[in-house]
Fold this sequence. Notes:
mainly alpha
Amino acid sequence: MIRIHPLFLVVLMGIAVTGNLAVYSFIILSLVWHEIGHLLAARYVNVKVKRCIIMPYGGEITVEHEGTVEPYKWLIIALGGPLATVLGMLLTLLLPPLVGQPLFNIQRILLLLNLLPIWPLDGGKILCNGLLVLWPKAKVYETFLSLSVCFLTIIVVVTLLMLPRSASLAVLSLFLWSKVIGEWRIRKYRSAFQKVVMNRLT
């Protein structure tokens, strides 16, 4: 059920080549733990997960009948990962400092990155679906996606201007930008599904 995206393998190989095998292991452990949080949350709201892919910024899950899942369920699923990471950070306090401290720091960085309020990060999905729960209008999704495209475009331009110092950040931001552009291209179809769901809720 859990798979690793090829780009994430390339990133990890780069870390391994530098000799940071402990970092390599901690990142994989942290991301898998994070995704288990999403999977447990999906199970809690009775949403069947088809697959889970570990990405360079976190992970993505694909569920059955994705377009008909209510926003409050998506909100709970999106919250599952960050909550698992917070729990993981607390658990590192019980470990010896030599292991616990670097594991805590890695999870903290992943959490802060993943909570940025842009699609497709968890922070973006939490904010977008939270807005849909409070204000069930299909236009919310499309507007939020457009804002994410604009914000990520700015980040991509800035990181490219700062090369070569920002190489890893540039690769990550380009990857996120490509994901949100792909989502933006099919926004009309998703909005149509959202309207069906919204009409059921209002």
